[in-house]
Amino acid sequence: MTTEDIAALEAQIYAYVGRECGSSTAPDPVNKPMIRHWCEVMGNTNPNHLDEAAASAGKRAELVAPATMLFVWNQTGYAVASTGRPKDPQVELIDLLDAHGYNGIVATDTTQEYFRELRLDDVISQRTVIDNISERKTTGLGEGYFYETVTEFSDQNGEPVGRQTFKVLKFRPAKKDQA
Protein backbone atom coordinates (compact mmCIF):
# COMPACT_ATOMS: atom_id res chain seq x y z
CA MET A 1 0.00 0.00 0.00
CA THR A 2 1.18 3.48 -0.80
CA THR A 3 1.34 6.24 1.79
CA GLU A 4 -1.76 7.76 0.17
CA ASP A 5 -3.62 4.40 0.36
CA ILE A 6 -2.76 4.06 4.04
CA ALA A 7 -3.89 7.63 4.74
CA ALA A 8 -7.19 7.01 2.94
CA LEU A 9 -7.78 3.75 4.83
CA GLU A 10 -6.95 5.38 8.15
CA ALA A 11 -9.38 8.22 7.46
CA GLN A 12 -12.07 5.59 6.88
CA ILE A 13 -11.30 3.46 9.93
CA TYR A 14 -10.89 6.38 12.35
CA ALA A 15 -14.39 7.55 11.36
CA TYR A 16 -15.69 4.49 13.26
CA VAL A 17 -14.47 5.79 16.62
CA GLY A 18 -17.45 6.65 18.80
CA ARG A 19 -19.96 4.69 16.75
CA GLU A 20 -22.39 2.39 18.53
CA CYS A 21 -21.98 -1.28 17.64
CA GLY A 22 -25.18 -2.44 19.23
CA SER A 23 -27.39 -2.32 22.22
CA SER A 24 -29.79 -4.81 23.71
CA THR A 25 -31.91 -5.62 26.69
CA ALA A 26 -31.59 -9.15 28.03
CA PRO A 27 -34.49 -11.40 27.06
CA ASP A 28 -34.61 -12.82 30.59
CA PRO A 29 -34.07 -11.30 34.02
CA VAL A 30 -31.23 -12.43 36.26
CA ASN A 31 -32.47 -15.77 37.54
CA LYS A 32 -31.53 -18.72 39.75
CA PRO A 33 -31.40 -21.42 37.03
CA MET A 34 -28.85 -19.49 34.93
CA ILE A 35 -26.80 -18.66 38.02
CA ARG A 36 -26.83 -22.34 38.99
CA HIS A 37 -25.79 -23.45 35.50
CA TRP A 38 -22.96 -20.91 35.41
CA CYS A 39 -21.72 -21.90 38.86
CA GLU A 40 -21.86 -25.60 37.94
CA VAL A 41 -19.82 -25.09 34.78
CA MET A 42 -17.29 -22.82 36.50
CA GLY A 43 -16.99 -24.92 39.65
CA ASN A 44 -18.21 -22.00 41.77
CA THR A 45 -19.71 -23.25 45.06
CA ASN A 46 -20.13 -19.88 46.77
CA PRO A 47 -23.40 -20.02 48.79
CA ASN A 48 -24.05 -16.33 48.01
CA HIS A 49 -24.82 -17.49 44.48
CA LEU A 50 -26.43 -20.87 45.13
CA ASP A 51 -28.15 -21.06 48.52
CA GLU A 52 -30.87 -18.50 49.14
CA ALA A 53 -31.08 -19.24 52.86
CA ALA A 54 -27.33 -18.91 53.36
CA ALA A 55 -27.15 -15.78 51.18
CA SER A 56 -30.06 -14.21 53.10
CA ALA A 57 -28.30 -14.85 56.40
CA GLY A 58 -25.03 -13.32 55.13
CA LYS A 59 -23.90 -9.74 54.65
CA ARG A 60 -25.54 -9.50 51.20
CA ALA A 61 -28.94 -10.53 52.60
CA GLU A 62 -29.96 -11.98 49.24
CA LEU A 63 -28.81 -14.27 46.43
CA VAL A 64 -26.60 -12.50 43.87
CA ALA A 65 -25.16 -13.48 40.50
CA PRO A 66 -21.40 -14.00 40.19
CA ALA A 67 -19.86 -10.74 38.97
CA THR A 68 -18.27 -12.52 36.01
CA MET A 69 -21.75 -13.27 34.63
CA LEU A 70 -22.14 -9.59 33.69
CA PHE A 71 -21.79 -10.21 29.95
CA VAL A 72 -23.87 -13.41 29.95
CA TRP A 73 -27.36 -11.95 30.18
CA ASN A 74 -27.26 -10.27 26.77
CA GLN A 75 -25.26 -12.82 24.77
CA THR A 76 -26.75 -14.11 21.55
CA GLY A 77 -27.33 -17.82 21.14
CA TYR A 78 -25.86 -20.37 18.79
CA ALA A 79 -27.92 -19.10 15.86
CA VAL A 80 -25.34 -16.36 15.23
CA ALA A 81 -22.81 -19.09 14.32
CA SER A 82 -24.95 -20.26 11.40
CA THR A 83 -26.74 -17.06 10.40
CA GLY A 84 -23.90 -14.64 11.00
CA ARG A 85 -23.85 -11.49 13.01
CA PRO A 86 -26.06 -8.63 11.88
CA LYS A 87 -24.22 -5.76 10.17
CA ASP A 88 -23.21 -3.08 12.61
CA PRO A 89 -20.30 -0.61 12.64
CA GLN A 90 -17.93 -3.15 14.23
CA VAL A 91 -18.71 -5.72 11.52
CA GLU A 92 -18.28 -3.00 8.89
CA LEU A 93 -14.90 -2.03 10.39
CA ILE A 94 -13.75 -5.67 10.34
CA ASP A 95 -14.94 -6.07 6.74
CA LEU A 96 -13.14 -2.86 5.70
CA LEU A 97 -9.87 -4.00 7.26
CA ASP A 98 -10.29 -7.48 5.75
CA ALA A 99 -10.75 -5.92 2.30
CA HIS A 100 -7.39 -4.18 2.71
CA GLY A 101 -5.55 -7.36 3.67
CA TYR A 102 -5.81 -6.99 7.46
CA ASN A 103 -7.63 -10.30 7.75
CA GLY A 104 -6.00 -11.68 10.89
CA ILE A 105 -7.71 -11.05 14.19
CA VAL A 106 -6.71 -11.80 17.75
CA ALA A 107 -8.19 -10.68 21.07
CA THR A 108 -5.49 -8.97 23.11
CA ASP A 109 -7.07 -7.57 26.26
CA THR A 110 -10.33 -7.33 28.17
CA THR A 111 -11.32 -5.78 31.47
CA GLN A 112 -14.53 -5.74 33.44
CA GLU A 113 -15.58 -3.33 36.15
CA TYR A 114 -18.46 -4.17 38.48
CA PHE A 115 -20.38 -1.30 40.04
CA ARG A 116 -22.82 -3.45 41.98
CA GLU A 117 -23.82 -7.08 42.21
CA LEU A 118 -26.67 -8.30 40.05
CA ARG A 119 -29.71 -9.43 41.98
CA LEU A 120 -32.52 -11.76 41.03
CA ASP A 121 -34.98 -10.15 38.61
CA ASP A 122 -32.59 -7.41 37.46
CA VAL A 123 -33.01 -6.87 33.71
CA ILE A 124 -29.67 -6.00 32.14
CA SER A 125 -29.21 -3.74 29.12
CA GLN A 126 -25.95 -3.14 27.31
CA ARG A 127 -24.63 -0.62 24.83
CA THR A 128 -21.32 -1.08 22.96
CA VAL A 129 -19.28 1.58 21.15
CA ILE A 130 -15.99 1.56 19.29
CA ASP A 131 -13.91 3.55 21.74
CA ASN A 132 -10.55 3.92 20.00
CA ILE A 133 -8.36 2.70 17.15
CA SER A 134 -4.57 2.81 17.35
CA GLU A 135 -2.15 4.09 14.80
CA ARG A 136 -0.75 1.38 12.53
CA LYS A 137 1.56 -0.92 14.52
CA THR A 138 4.05 -3.59 13.60
CA THR A 139 3.74 -6.69 15.78
CA GLY A 140 5.11 -10.21 15.72
CA LEU A 141 1.89 -11.30 14.02
CA GLY A 142 2.11 -8.61 11.37
CA GLU A 143 1.21 -5.00 10.74
CA GLY A 144 -2.18 -3.86 11.94
CA TYR A 145 -4.48 -1.79 14.09
CA PHE A 146 -5.69 -2.32 17.62
CA TYR A 147 -9.26 -1.30 18.25
CA GLU A 148 -11.16 -1.30 21.51
CA THR A 149 -14.85 -1.49 22.27
CA VAL A 150 -16.49 -0.38 25.50
CA THR A 151 -19.71 -1.95 26.71
CA GLU A 152 -21.74 -0.22 29.39
CA PHE A 153 -24.23 -2.31 31.36
CA SER A 154 -27.25 -0.96 33.22
CA ASP A 155 -30.22 -2.35 35.11
CA GLN A 156 -33.95 -1.96 34.47
CA ASN A 157 -33.84 1.49 36.09
CA GLY A 158 -31.02 2.69 33.84
CA GLU A 159 -28.52 2.56 36.72
CA PRO A 160 -24.98 1.51 35.70
CA VAL A 161 -24.02 -1.97 36.95
CA GLY A 162 -20.78 -2.60 35.06
CA ARG A 163 -18.45 -1.90 32.18
CA GLN A 164 -16.31 -4.02 29.87
CA THR A 165 -13.50 -3.09 27.51
CA PHE A 166 -12.43 -5.48 24.78
CA LYS A 167 -9.37 -4.91 22.56
CA VAL A 168 -8.43 -6.78 19.40
CA LEU A 169 -5.68 -6.57 16.85
CA LYS A 170 -6.73 -6.67 13.18
CA PHE A 171 -3.55 -7.42 11.28
CA ARG A 172 -2.06 -8.31 7.94
CA PRO A 173 -0.38 -11.65 8.67
CA ALA A 174 3.40 -11.47 8.43
CA LYS A 175 4.87 -13.46 5.58
CA LYS A 176 6.76 -16.51 6.74
CA ASP A 177 10.40 -16.76 5.71
CA GLN A 178 10.80 -19.40 3.07
CA ALA A 179 13.48 -21.98 3.83
From TrEMBL:
Residues 17-161 form the FAS1-like dehydratase domain. InterPro entries: FAS1-like_DH_region, HotDog_dom_sf. It holds the Pfam family FAS1_DH_region. SUPFAM superfamilies: Thioesterase/thiol ester dehydrase-isomerase. This is MaoC family dehydratase N-terminal domain-containing protein. It comes from the Bacteria. The lineage of its organism: Bacteria, Pseudomonadati, Pseudomonadota, Gammaproteobacteria, Cellvibrionales.
